[in-house]
Amino acid sequence: MHGDSQYYIMFGPDICGYSTKKVHVIFNYKGKNHLIKKEIKCKDDEMTHLYTLILQPDQTYEVKIDNEKVESGSLEEDWDFLPSKTIKDPEAKKPEDWDDRAKIDDPEDSRPEDWDKPENIPDPDAKKPDDWDEEMDGEWEPPMIPNPEYKGEWRPKQIDNPNYKGVWVHPEIDNPEYTPDSSIYKFDSIGVLGLDLWQVKSGTIFDNFLITDDVKTAEEFGTETWGATKEPEKKMKEKQEEEERKQTEEEKSKKDEDDDDDDDEGEDEEEEEGEGEEEDTTEEPSPTEDEEDELSPKDVKDEL
């Protein structure tokens, strides 16, 4: 088997990036693949989930996730297996006198005499600059400003159209190309179950596949497999998350302690450098007159 191999049914979650998170339900009917016309959202987490597709002899279907119905309907309506049962009558045309205007202009309404006001008018507060030279600059014109009395384009009032007949609906007729098929739901020759995968992240596990014509058997099988492991899996995940949380807190605490130790060492080095750079500002006392008289010959010689 390969990616282009023909299949009867493609069913299961499709998760790609941030935008695609849906359940595929694709049927091959008369050599053509048909996608469901509805959007079915899939689960998007790290837990195991149970996906179930049920096809009924009355041409209805049901999709379940974790034994809960998420979508259902008619095979004929939700897929384009068959042509439409009816089509628009090609011979029908809207009558020329068909009036589908719900509102019309009031014929009694007229535009007020003082309605026509210009949108912009010369600024009445503007003054020609003192240095304006008409020979050089041309004739001075005041700048234009919005007219506060401007009312816009006049439109007559709308009233109910007495001749309104409603929206014309194109008549439909039976589609001559439509042929009912009561066996759309039925697949007699399924012989292989395959997985269509394209992944860039490892860790996905698939298990416990079942194809059966007994809904009750499928429900029991799901209860015995997924139903038996979902709670232990949930507890295991909660335990793992708690351990990861504790580890993160311990690493953060250790990092904060290391940062505090580095700050203390930096302060000690600055203090030592400051002590080493201190200068001795103590001055030797000057000798008094008596002390000068008592200087020894050697001292006198040294002074000289």
UniProtKB/TrEMBL annotation:
It comes from the Eukaryota. Residues 86-130, 230-256, 295-304 have a biased composition (Basic and acidic residues). Pfam families: Calreticulin (PF00262). GO terms for biological process: ERAD pathway; protein folding. Transmembrane segments: none annotated. Keywords: Calcium, Chaperone, Endoplasmic reticulum, Lectin, Metal-binding, Repeat, Signal, Zinc. GO terms for cellular component: endoplasmic reticulum lumen; endoplasmic reticulum membrane. It is found in: Endoplasmic reticulum lumen. Residues 83-151, 221-304 are annotated as: Disordered. One of its GO terms (molecular function) is carbohydrate binding. Residues 131-140, 257-294 have a biased composition (Acidic residues). PANTHER family: CALRETICULIN AND CALNEXIN (PTHR11073), CALRETICULIN-3 (PTHR11073:SF3). Belongs to the calreticulin family. This is Calreticulin.
